[in-house]
Design goal:
This protein has helices spanning about 5-20, 40-45, 50-55, 70-75, 105-110, 110-115, 150-160, 230-235; strands at about 60, 80-85, 90-95, 120, 130-135, 140, 145, 170-175, 180, 195-200, 205. It is of the alpha/beta class. It has a single domain, classed as Rossmann fold, CATH 3.40.50. The protein starts with a helix and ends with a helix. About 40% of the residues are buried.
């Protein structure tokens, strides 16, 4: 079995577990998604106790549903959000809580609300990032993560790395259900590991394997190379 097939089996097993145990939240079914789950708010609160969270001014987020409670808490605490748009089709959004009307913070933390109360920004407008919150389908005991298979979390990180806005030391955290913890996930060269995973019942800090892409592996982009965000990045980097 090759690595891709092995990873797909892990995804299927985790999605099955969440559905069969009825701990999945809307949107359902969870197959093909970063799964939302019961206890997501408790997991989010665990992240807010971290020193890395408390000290962060700019937090980069994925746009998926299970990280919405943490996006709301970020905005409520005055943090600026840099959020990738779904599948990077429209690059990145910047959501500044100072630009959000009273009573609209929760809505602004949703994907639709971020498009309304945030603004699309070019790559040169992205501020340095203090903390990354990523979504996961599964996390193993070393902190290796598995997304839904599109590779966008890794690409988002690699774009920021190309721009010098993150480094090996930029902490990466996630919120998952306990059923999303697995024994082992194989790492490929482009994969990310997370430093911390918060579940509804506990906080896991990983001290072992740490892997970060150094930048875009251009030859692996395939058709994604046609996305406007990569055209912009090539211009910035002077790549023909």
């Amino acid at each position: 079995m090759n690595v891709k097939e092995y990873k797909n089996r892990i995804r299927k097993r985790v999605w099955d577990l969440l559905e069969k145990n009825n701990v999945a939240r809307f949107p359902r079914p969870v197959y093909g998604r970063i799964p939302n789950f019961e206890g997501v708010d408790a997991a989010a609160l665990r992240i807010t106790k971290l020193e890395e969270w408390i000290n962060a001014r700019v937090v980069k987020f994925n746009p998926d549903s299970p990280q919405k409670p943490l996006r709301r808490l970020a905005l409520l605490s005055g943090k600026i959000i840099v959020m990738a748009t779904p599948r990077l089709r429209e690059g990145f959004l910047l959501v500044d809580p100072r630009s959000i009307p009273p009573g609209k913070i929760s809505y602004a933390s949703s994907i639709r609300g971020a498009f309304i109360y945030g603004r699309r920004i070019g790559l040169r407008e992205i501020p340095p990032v203090d903390l990354i919150v990523t979504g996961c389908v599964a996390v193993d005991k070393r902190g290796a993560r598995l997304g839904k298979g599109g590779g966008y979390a890794e690409l988002e990180y690699a774009i920021l790395r190309e721009l010098g806005l993150v480094s090996d030391d930029t902490p990466i955290v996630t919120t998952i259900h306990d059923l999303q913890l697995v024994d082992y996930i194989p790492l490929e060269p482009h994969d990310l590991t997370v430093d911390v995973a918060a579940t509804p019942t506990r906080l896991l800090v990983f001290k072992g394997v740490k892997q970060r892409p150094k930048g875009i592996i251009w030859e692996l982009l395939g058709e994604k190379a046609r996305l406007k965000v990569f055209e912009e990045l090539r211009r910035i980097k002077g790549i023909g």
